Amino acid sequence: MKINGTHYRSLWWNHENNVLEIIDQRWLPHELRIQQIARLQDLATAIVEMRVRGAPLIGATAAYGMALAMAEDPSDANLDAAWAYLEKTRPTAINLRWALDRCRRALQPLAETDRAEAALTLAHEIADEDVEVNRRIGENGLALIREIAARKPAGEPTRLLTHCNAGWIATVDWGTATSPMYQAHDEGIALHVWVDETRPRNQGALTAWELGSHGVPHTYITDNAGGHMMQHGLVDMVLIGTDRTTRQGDVCNKIGSYLKALAARDNDIPFYVALPSSTIDWTVSNGVAEIPIEERDVRETTHVQGKTEAGAIESVQLTPDDTPGGNPAFDVTPNRLVTGLITERGICPATPEGLSDMFPELARGVE
What we know:
It catalyses: 5-(methylsulfanyl)-alpha-D-ribose 1-phosphate = 5-(methylsulfanyl)-D-ribulose 1-phosphate. The protein is α/β, with parallel strands linked by helices.
């Protein structure tokens, strides 16, 4: 997608300097900073500190991490050590482990002398695949938006509500939940997107920055406003992403997603989740009971970063000095609250049968 008319991916390989370059998302939406990464340790730090974030992007970044590790030491011991080191960086998003497993399977049979080049080639493939998968997710979600738009009175926009940032900056390009929005806008469908702030890290500001850069009409609202908007007929569809989806169709997404699903159900509003198949964890059935929920630094809840009137980016404390904080980063929406899953192959029910019919070769052998 574009920033001020220039096309960017969220990460790319600098062939001249032989390093990975990323957009450091900690400074968005106020400042665009590019970081070069040449060492595995620095890449792991970028994932932990959410310089890169979003399940698909974390997976692609991890693949480049394996390539950096193999360039330094292509031994069997380092292959396993790099896998273990990166796997610990973020516990909830399944794309991380999916990419690491794919890299290790591909590299293990190779001679050590061939691993560095093969690992980098594979990382490029994973990044390019992510772009195409998200484009196709957008095509499939676009069909839903077309249906809603066709029923709207002339001149009235289709109104979507989204939570967190499942945009191009959370993937390599296009995004998951935003891909249908971009494609609908480009087709000329009138849209308006309600963008949840998504406390505590306010990733909704990233979505607003993305949509604004692409010219999509939107409004940034507080997390607690969504139910009110639905009650008053101002939301036609809720569309979010997911960091992990169970084989029965439960979805784990940024904290607060479950509350949006409950409000959507109470107001008879469709609640769709956009995801690549790499986000499906076929080893997990009950998301509430089985998915590990990342507990992040409480400072994210007690402090907030923003831009002052003077233009400086600063952090300020919100809470009393002695007040403890809690910071569960995700919650799980049970499949009964999900209208459908928008994947690269099409839209399916959020059920074991729906997922296995859509991806039979992946579901094969799952109990």
